[in-house]
Amino acid sequence: AHKITPKNNPVSLDITSSGALGAVTDGKDVLVFEGKTGSVRRTLSGHLADVDCVKFFPSSKVLLTGGSDMCIKIWSIEDGTCPVTLKGHKRGITALDMVDRGKQVVSSSLDGTIKVWLCGTQECLTTISPQSGAINHIQILEHDKSVSSKLVMSATETGKLTVHSIEDTNTLLSQYQHSSELTSCTAFSQHLMVAGSSTGDVITLDIRNCSQPVSVHKRSNSAVTSLAYHSNRVWCGQKDGECYTLNSDTTLQSDTTLSDTTLSGAIVRRYTLLLLKMGSYLPLLGTG
Questions:
Q1: Contact assessment for residue 252 and residue 246, using Cβ atoms and an 8 Å cutoff
Q2: N or C, which end of the chain is more exposed by having fewer CB within 10 Å?
Q3: How far is CA 130 from the centre of its chain?
Q4: Between residues 92 and 210, which one has the greater pLDDT?
């Protein structure tokens, strides 16, 4: 297979639902590549500082990016244009998600806020301020298909995991306080969430009562840099370059060292666990 070799160490990657396309950060640029061959289809340039997160829209024709320049950009994959730039955060963007098939975009930032945007008008509909320092990661929790029921959870630098409604932003629905910084989060059922910490803890929580964890798993003291749910497993990536999977009761299922797949170091971060869920992509990404 051909390798994608960004000039800069990539920190975020996303793959379309069909696996046909991928996008990976390359400093201020984003490389959009063919899933089967790894050949770069186009380079997206427009951010003024490093791009830190990428996410495809459900249509696979549009890409969402967020950067250290405090901007969120919406790109057409077909022609490489950027018709929409969303501005309002005061520090760099750390994570992106969307609701209602992309009609609304949700962003988090080092400025400690979560913003909900209406893509059609480029309007910021609401701002959520958990008052917990920088927000490292967010994810939308979908209790059902109505937009009004959507919840957003956030992992913060002060160790708090919070759950807010994106409609009633003044109401804190659930909160958990950990002893160290929370670096990532994901959900694997209607009620169960998982958070990762800077000290290697993987914490399972029930949204209905977050005061105490359901369980805590720890493989090492290395920071948990990314979490993802796929095929009834929670995939955990750590700063030391290793990855392992947990089942729904967080029993350790496997432990795989990734040093020979060029995924060590910074690349095992945020969305990059998608590489691990789709094993055919492992040879495609090189770090130069």
A1: yes
A2: C
A3: 18
A4: 92
